[in-house]
Each structure stands twice: as C-alpha cells, then as structure tokens.
Write the structure tokens for this entry.
Amino acid sequence: MTEIVVVGCGLTGLMASILAADRGAKVTLVARGRGGLTLSHGCIDVWGRATPSRALSRLRMSHPYRLAGKESVQAGIEILRDLCHQADLPYLGNISHNLRLPTAVGTVHPTALAPKSLSLGDLRSNTPITIAGIDGFRDFYPELAAANLQKTGVTVVDALHLPLPLSAARRDRYAMDLAHSFDDPHFRDEVVRIWKPRLSGVKRLGLPAILGLKNPQLTHEELQERLGLTLFEIPTLPPSLPGFRLEKLLRRKAMEMGVFLIEGPKVLGRVEGSAKSARVSGVVLQTTGGARTLPTDIVILATGGVMHGGLVFQQNGQVRESVLDLPVIYDESRQHWTASSPLESQPYANYGLLVNEQMQPLGADGQPIYTNLFCAGGLLANADRSNEGSRQGIGIATAYRAVEVALG
Amino acid sequence: MIRPNLSTDQCLKCNICTSACPVASVSDEFMGPKSVGPQAARYGYTDRPPSILSLTWCSGCGICSLVCPHDVAVAEINIQAKAEVVKPRKVKLRDQLISRPELLGRLALPVASLANRSINSRATRWLLEKSLAISSSAPLPAFANQSLRTRMSSKCVDSPPDPEVDTDQIVAFFHGCSSNYYEPDLGILAISILEQLGQNVIIPPQRCCGLPLQSNGLLKSARRYAQTNISSLAPFANRGIPIVGISTSCTLSLKHDYRDILGLQDDRSNLVASSTFDFFEFLTFQLAEELNHLEFKPVPAEALYHPPCQLRSHGIGFPALRVLERIPGLQILLSESECCGIAGTYGIKQEKNLIAHDVGKSLFEQAQESEVDFVLSDSETCRWWITKYTGLPVYHPLEIIARAMEIE
C-alpha cells in the first residue's frame, strides 16, 4: 500500500487526503492549527471576474489552473459537490456562470458554488430581498448591507432587526453561539413563534449565517417552510459558519476514510539521494514531546501561502517555503512586495513555488527537485487568488492533479 | 517563568479558539479563550495580576492552543493567568484536596474497601457536596486494595541499569496516580503488552505528575512535583530509556506542561520530554516492526472511540486507532466531540458539574444513540466520567488490544 503524507488541512489538504484515500493510499494528514477553511466564507470561488469556464483557458501558461488543466478543475469540483451532497450539505452552482451573492457589507461576491442556504441569496434572481440582523449580535449590520447593496442596483425592501428567545448574555454572542442555539429544535419553535408575525409580506429574507452547525441543511429547510419564505444566509466575519461546516464535513469524511490525522506538530522534510534521483524520504514531526520521524513514499504539500504558514516572509527580505525550504519565486526588494493601494492586486500574492504540470516543484534548472514531492493550493506561484476570486478553485484543481499524478 | 504571553502579538483575534472552546459553547460564564487570554494579556498591566474572574471557568482542555493557526499559546497563557487570579485568594480546601490524588491514594490504601464503601454512600456524597462543594453526581474513583508498585515491586528500580548493560529493549513505565492507586490492573496489562512485544519493563521512582495541582492554580506545589519527577526520570532518559505512560495527561505534563506552563526549561526537562511517549505512540512509532508481526484475535464488537483532549495536545494524532484498526471484527466509530467535559478535576466541582455535563452531552448522546457495545478512551478521568453519564462500559484501548492478544 502506498504511504502518503499530506501537509496542511485547509481545503486543499483535506481534498488531497480524501482523493488519495479514495485511490487506496494509506494517508497521514499533518497540520499545525486549523485555519484556511474555518476562516473562509464556505463558498467555492473558481473565477470571480468573468465567465469562469471561458476565462480559464485564456490564462497564462504558468497559472496554476493552466498547469493543473481544465479537467482537474471540473473533476475536483464535481467530487466536492458529491461529497457535500452525500453529507447533507448540498452545494448549488456551476463553473459556467457565477452566483452573485450578497456579502455582510453589501458588496457582491461572485462565486461558482455555494451551500444551498447561501445560494438562495443569488442577486440574479428578481425576488426582492429583506435583510435582517439579530438583536445583540454585533457582527452583522443589516442597514449597512442594505445601503451598499442598493448602491449596486439591488432592490432591498427593508433592513430590520429580529430578536431571539435568549436571555441576556454575560458576553458577546458569536455566530457559533447562535448556531448552537439553532441546533436545538425547541429553540427553533420559539424563533418561529416570535419571527413569524414580524415577517408578514417578506418574500426573501437574508440573515447572517447562524442557522446551526449540526445539521444546517435540515434547520434551514425547516425554518423556510415554517416561516413561509425564501431564507438565505450571508457569511459573517470569521470564523464563519459556512466555512466551519465545510471544514467539519471534510475532516470527518477524511477520518472515516481512514486518513490518519495528526494535528499540532510543525513539519520538516527529510531528504535522501542527490541530483536527479533525490527524493523526500519522509517528514520529521516536531511533536509536543520531541521529533518523530514519519517515513513515507509520497509527500503532498498543501501548506498554503503567506497567511497560512506555507510561505514565510522574513524581515531580511527573503521569502522561504516552510517545510523543505524549496525555492520560492519573489521580488528581492521588499518595496516591491506591495502595491501602492491596499485595494489593488498585490505583487506578493503571486509569490510562491514554480511547479510543472505534474505539480512537482521545480529547481533553477527547470527540473523537478524531488521525484516524489507534489505541491498544491495557496503555495503555488503566479496567481493572485483574492483578486481573481480563484482561491478554492485553485486548491481543489491542484489537489486533484497532484493526487492523480502521485497515485495515477 | 517563561512568558507564553510573548505569543499574544501573533493573535489576529480570529476567534477560531472561541469557536472551538468546549466550555464557551455551552456557557456564557466563560468569556472564551481569546477574551480572557491573548486579549486580556495585551491590555493587562504587567505589574498587576489579571483580574478576570471569568478565567476560573476555563477547564484547561487545551483545544484553543491546538486550533490556533498562528501559534498563540492560548491555553498556556490562560493557565498561568488563572494561577495568578487564584493566588491572592485562598485556594479552597476542596481544590487543595482533589489536586492531590497521590496523597488521597496513600491515605486510603490501607483501608481501601472501607473508604470505597463510605465514599460512595449517598450520605457521604451529600456531605461532601454540602461541606466541600464536591458534586454529588460526579464519579469518584474507587481505591485499589494494593498499589501497582506493591504488586510489581520486582520491577521497581531506584536508578537506571549499570553502564555496561545494553538498554536497547528497556522501557521505563510511568504509571501515574491512576494506575498506581485506582486501576493497577490496567497498568499491569500495559506492562504485559510491552513485554509480549519484547520489551523489558522497569518502574522508575516517580510521583504524581502534578497536573491536578497545576489545573487548580497551585503552580508552586506543581513545580515541586515536577522537579522531583524530572530529577528521578532524567537519569533513565539519559541512558536512552524511553518513558512510557498510559495516562495521556501525565505524559503531557512530562512532555509539555513542565516546560511551557511551569517554566522548567533546561536540558534535563527537555531530555525527559523528548524521551516520553504515550503508550500507543510508543507502539506505533517505536515498535512498528514488532507490531506488524502480531496476529490479533478477533474482537467482534462495535466501539466508540473518544480521544481525550490531553491526547490531542501531544500532537501525535490518535495512535490507538492505528492499532485498533488491525483487530479483526472490531468496528470503530469516531467521537464527534472535542471534549467529554470532565477535564481532570473540573467536572467534580459542584459549581462546574453542570457545565461539564453539558460539554459532554453530545458525546453521551452519540454513544447511546449509536448503540455501541462500549466506549474507548485513553484517559482515566474521561472513562469514569463517560461511564457515569452513559451507563456504558468504557475501556482504555489497551484493554481491547490485550484481549486481541489474549493477555489476561
């Protein structure tokens, strides 16, 4: 049985682990801290700027999408859609036409796939919307969202505040606290009783994403039916429930498939051989007690970019890769790392590893550095994920491609 | 004392820790790990003790540090701050008592059956609750008639073997208070398994790891215990002898708490830390070969595995699963809860018992609804606690391994 170590448990690492386990490999998934996915909006952005499927074939050759290939985008996304569907968290949308979803600050977020409870807020639909905040919940301001959406031409009928059947709390309530409350059926009974009279005439209601963590799909459907309207969720400030739900689903799925999850240690690579036949013989885990060596046949790095620990931007102007110190493409002058405005595309966002179509990182000679090392996700160079609206799509496509080559 | 506080500057206030905190998810008494930890430390005065009483509701499970994506020592900050909060007040007699399982064990041993009978009588439990605020519904362990050290006296040694002796197959067993005074049979089973795998087990001098003292804010006493243990174990570690324990919380103290909470950072504590192994960590990392040669007898059963929070903090994954999965006929279901609630001595306290029970509620429900034959967990307090609230037998995974190896 092929042994494979995946480093990083964001969307990319979790997908790579599930795909590898599905192909019969013995997978160890190692990660330090939960992050990426739990901080995200839970949607799958593939290409935010235009029709995704057409835009992908026009990208420059070095873009991760071009390297992974269009088939990987499609195949990876369909697998994710199936996983979510089987786990009762259906995702709607496709990569031909973006959904246009409202954000908590009233901007428009184009995305390929979204959980059903978010997708019903699609602004391409003409059904007028009402946006509601929750009394005592400080992470969502319906008036702000409504006013900004009006500016983009969306008709917002009303912005209102809804109370919850909860006693005064001794601290701020976060989205997660409210989600725990919504998991309780008796709580939902009370909510319906209090809300129904306040929502007469409302056709489509947008709420901050708080509708449960245990079985959000059922909770959402139940509330829609009992309130008699279309109900949609809007992701809040991190940690955001839709991201948490997807993370929980994928982590659980991976473990059920026999993926051995090790959370906590820093990971360093171990290398043997030289020149053309060099390979990664395993990883050294800096566990709480001490170093433990994990020999393996294949390593997939999915450690993410600068925000996630895969790339380390040093004060001395160097940018390093954190596990194997692989060569990183970056500008050596720190002044060039950022653009003049924070709202522009940032040069540093494009820094990362150069890989070939097999997802193998390349050395200065343009050849793969190690025969059994593959990289995916935020670690790869030549894409500005925030600006392109491509973060999750790149993660999924490159994870799919890496596993396909590694175990193919 | 080291200052985990230095890591507060890495806190982005993303709230992942608050969302993952088992206590904050069921109670607003606790403001959450971020608020009382990194945030309070940032805004606090270095020359004044922290004044946030909400801190005392932290159960010390350590999940916050585990999930933090930016290496903030959230739990460590909180435990140190908790001790500072307790300091100017008088530590309750109850907390003084329950944090000394070793002392209780030594006192009760000669009169074990009498002690067991009277401690579990309703009248005594009523009295304990009224006088000491020890919850009358929390499980208290029964004392054994004979300690492990007495029963295994031939294996007890004062010092490591002479320099000329090859220490290759020698293992030093850290029994902790639990298998010395409460569950000696379990310790003896562990020793038998190690012996069957070709190891020569010795029992070095040792005392309570000190974790209960540390959790109750008695850091000075805890440090004294830690220093004794480091002094008696370092000579063994120095000879390359691994220290193996079956209680995931004692081993975590040796690996982590002595250094990162009690501030005992020197060559000897580092050596003890890196030589310490959880029982299943040792089996899977160090005895992988020997394990491969074992033939397990079938154990036809369905079991729910619940990893203790303290095991999570080892950063080694859940190695018991890697051994359990080899047993024919054994179906393992994974716990969906991060914590069972007891957190050592937390759930025993009357004022915290209800919160602790609510933390474990979803685990208890999962165990009962899934109709498993038994539950598995590596920590003694978790086992006692889960048994109490599910009525199901709860075993240490090594008991099932012993069954599959036909060790009585």
